[in-house]
Specification:
Helix content is 67%, strand content 0%. Helix 2 runs antiparallel to helix 3 and helix 4 crosses helix 5. The chain is built from five helices and no strands. It has one domain. It is mainly alpha-helical.
Amino acid sequence: MALTSTTAAETQTTELPEVADPSQVAPKDARELSRLFFEQLAVLEEGTPEYSYARNTLIEMNMSLVRYAAGRFRSRGPEEMEDIVQVGMIGLIKAIDRFELSREA
């Protein structure tokens, strides 16, 4: 029975597009790509190279969002800005790990 579910999961995976520089993806394209990568994260087995690629690409595509949000705190100084970005990145990673595409709709 477990063998069948593994086979079913493998048939649902699709080839993920190669994103040369995720930080340069336009916001319009990032939204569409994010949906595709989240769909694959739900199917792929954690710890595989494909899973790591999908997760890391999602993180890199959304780093600009963290920097944008952190920009609201520029008046606090450069030392604190670095801490704010770091905390924002941790939040982004946790959000990606916990995100469920099925709850979006």
